[in-house]
Amino acid sequence: MNKRKYIFTANEYAIIVYCFLLLSATSFLNFNFGIFIKPLEGEFQWSRTSISSAYSIYMIIGSFAAILTGELSDRYGAQKIILIGMLLSGLSLFLASTLNTIWEFYIYIGVLAGLSRSALNTPIFAYIQKTFDYKRGLATGIAGSGGGLGILIITPVVGYLIIHYGWRPSYIVLASVFFVLSIPTLAIILLSRKNQRTTEAEESPPEENILSESTQGMKVIMKHRSFWSILGSHSCDCICHSVIIVHLVPFAIESGVPRLEAATLLGMIGLGALIGRIVAGIMSDRIGAKWALFISLTCQTLPVPLLLFNPNFTTMLLIASFVGLGLGGHGTMYPIVTRDYYGKKRVGILFGTFATGASIGMAAGSFLGGAIHDLTGTYHAAFMFSFFFGACSLFLVWLYPEKNNLQPTEKEKAEFALNT
Fold this sequence. Notes:
Growth Hormone, Chain: A; 420 residues
């Protein structure tokens, strides 16, 4: 029975707040491209395709490097990788303020920022999973909600800076934010050295209720159905919501919704995601990660077919809010699922692998949604495509093993001790 007087200790609250701030700043790396397109286009006369290509480079580099940074965070500590990510982010944005050629833009904002993204998202969530045992879902949800709030706050602020001061000073301001936030990260690294031996001693016993293959290395883990079920559900549910995220606004405009009102649909998705992250975290502490994830993905999947029946703006707002709730819940639950099934030891590399699958799903969903629209002339088939992969994600989550069936045997406990 837990005898805690408070939900979190003062140190745990500090970690949650700091991860919240880190994810707020990091989220802007994913969404700053659109704001800088017009200023760069106006000054350098670069084509829209040339500028947008930097985002493709950024996503590709960040997605596949997540596996490496996840493994490094497991091996050397997530805090150290997070510090490198913060410094790389600041450096990439500072160098962007000096750029004069498209190739510099690709290197600074495509390659360097992509590497920094991989060194932030995966290690931050891995750090939370390794730090919290009590109310881990709530901690993950609160910290993760910083991503949504960061988009809502930082985006208009940078827009204001660009209008009044120009794009070069705006990049410098953003770089300064990352450099300043790196200072507490360094402090956390130095303070954590004090308790390193104690922490290692605490982690040496085998964790209860984890998959037996988690003690035997990645090659063995990848031979089991559970690994492919988690990877597949993550990829499929990203295909589902990426179609909606990218194509709901143009669908609304084609359906006669005014452009300004149509744009608010994305805001509703963002608000839903903000709430969904916290709610899903609370649910996971009560009913378990598997079923909290299942409910989240149900929220984003079931409303999609309503788009086939010529919905009005009110219906679209409702659909956007439910898709947002599912999107936020998915963002909170996959780090928790990874830790629940595989323990602390390899949470970094495994979550990085699952996140790579998710990025592939996001890219495939947004592209194929547009391609299906171009082939058919409407979004009806594209939304059915989205619903199909949402249903696939639910089926794959249903295949996850139940937590109460994962008690390790004495032999597996001995193997764990040997491997650690």
